[in-house]
Amino acid sequence: MEERQDITVNAGDIARLAGVGRAAVSNWRRRHEDFPQPVGGTASSPLFSLPEIAAWLRANGKSFEVSLGDLVWQRLRTSVDDLRLGDLVGRAGAFLLFLHREPGAWRDHGTRSLSRMATVTADLPGSPDLRLDDLALVGLIAELAAERGPLDAFEFLCERYVEAHSRQLSITRDDVAELMTRLAVQEKGVVLDPACGIGTLLLHAESSRGQEINETNALLSAVRVLLRGAEARIVAGDSLREDGLAGDLADAVICDPPFNERAWGYEDLAADPRWEYGLPPRGESELAWVQHCLAHVKPGGLVAILMPTAAASRRPGKRIRGNLLRAGALRAVVTLAPGGPDLWVLRRPNGTRPPSQLLVVDASEDLSIVEPAWRAYMENPEAELSGDSRTVRIIDLLDDEVDLNPARHRPQQGGLDFLRDFTDALARFRGTSAMLSDAPPSLELLDERQDLPTTTIGELAKAGLIAILQAPPKMSADEGPLPVLTADDIAAGTSPSGRTTLDPALVMIKPGDVVTTVLGTVRMITQSDAALGPQVTLYRVDPQRLDPGFLAGFLRSADGARIHPSSSRLDVRRARVPMLPLPDQRRYGTAFRELFALEDRLRETRTLGETLIRLGFDGLVDGHLRPCDQRV
User: Does the predicted TM-score (pTM) go above 0.70?
Assistant: First the structure.
């Protein structure tokens, strides 16, 4: 694909298009005098000519190919500043919607057909004239639509836009969005989201209603929904202050509202009829969103709304929480992750007898338990549940605190469940602790200290024995389909717990890699299929010249290489490593691996011991256990 002369790219774009990390681009700029000079941007974020970059990469034998989608995206980014980029993407979406609805108009009449665009896309929010001024860009977008289809073309542009504005946009996790839809949408009908963002929660509905305070996001949301062939009405505006969907009642409401908003309209909305369960306190904007959602669902309809964990227990909101419980409106509170958010599921009262129990679920370790628990509760709200789900009597919750936090109502295990868990924990603890006696490696005690010639990590890297890699700058490890090994995982010795989106700049870990954190924790990698997380350094060795276990052991003991005695941060390039033949390295590496394994077993034994102790206390208190010498 021919690159336009006026299209620019930043360092991150170059890395993505060339399939390398951002560090590689920095190295090219530093080491190659003929690397293209910036043509714009700032000193900290320079912009380069795409044709010049493409020519340089090809001249230097680097793999580089600009797809039609990337060409359109870079043209969009070059056309306006970041503040107006969203509006331009939305206008591109409006044109794609026009192509979707009248595919023959552009083919037969070209740019002359654009006169009909306002009429064809009249159901989009915002300006009635959403045409693009750059006709060359219009032609590129039409080519992209012909190649991918209008929907896939716009989703590609949206994906790039979200990546470029990840810190400004709040996107509901895909797995959470799907769960909310499955819980609240019982059958075909109208689904409403009063804080719809860019439409994530409305994508699977056949008929949608939405409102979004940001006009650009409202436009993006509408295009995404309408390109799927759904019937939709999306309006721009502040849902709480200026309800653009007043009077609309949906079959289900799904919402991921903004949290902790102080200026949500407390003074102006004091007498609003939506506050059926009480005037939300000034600092409880989330309870205003809950009641707004209930006001927009039909009697008997369901609401699934994300809430901060504190909303389940904050004292100012206890009156509203109590009223929601008494009316039978609040049906379930689900912990989705440690620290939140929580998911509240509500049903607008329809005159039937409300349930006497509330479903509470701790799904912080496994979201798959939520839907079966909810289905069982819907079938019989009075039934007892097991595992990390339970029902709590509403009358027991209506105390001075009205604390709905699932952690406070951890279910007592039934006899069979407790017997299984206790015996399993006991057997695993005994098995793991029994292995400790044989765990230390065989080490020879020397009469005199052995001095070994040494070099530094920095010198080994210069010689090509070690590649030192780090995650891309500003990488997010909070959500996405790809696992991420974080610094906390390394410190705890656990599996990758972070999540991120696919990006060619990511560093993927491999078995045999050595990873360290800024605080000096060192671990050897035994599994792959995860990305390297922020604040973590990876060392990848040439196994024919350097043993990874040998390197890991000496990195672990590199206390003398710290920046200064009062610092806990490790200056890894100054860390010293003995210069030994590869067979000797491997002997040291074997010993170090056995010590690392012993450390893991001790950590596992401690964790199992803590579990066994907790179950022991719970069993004695709950009546599942008694001391062996106790008589009936």
Answer: no
The reply to whether 115 and 187 lie within a common domain is no
Nearest by Cα to 584 from 466, 450, 462, 460: 450
Which two tokens mark 433?
A: 């602790």
What is the SS3 assignment for 203-263?
A: CCCCEEEEEECCHHHHHHHHHHHHCCCCEEEEEECCCCCCCCCCCCCEEEEEECCCCCCCC
Task: Name the residue range of residue 392's domain.
Answer: 174-195+239-408
Q: What is the tens place of the pLDDT at every residue in 352-365? A: 999 999 999 989 88
Q: What DSSP element (H or E) covers 553?
A: helix 548-556
Q: Could you tell me if 43 and 95 lie in one domain?
A: yes
The model's pLDDT over 502-531, given as tens digits with 9 standing for 90+, comes to 888 899 999 999 998 877 788 888 887 899
Residue 268 has pLDDT above 90, yes or no: yes
Tell me the HSE value of 206 on the side-chain side, using a 13 A CA sphere.
6
Contact between 7 and 490 under an 8 Å Cβ cutoff? The reply is no
Q: Which of 579, 602, 625 is the last residue of a domain?
A: 579
Taking alpha carbons only, the member of 75, 84, 255, 73 closest to residue 159 is: 73
d(CA 612, CA 614): 5
Of the candidates 79, 21, 8, which has an alpha carbon nearest to the alpha carbon of residue 48? 8
CATH number for position 382: 3.40.50.150
Helix or strand run (H / E) with residue 435: none
In angstroms, the CA 593 to CA 582 distance is: 16
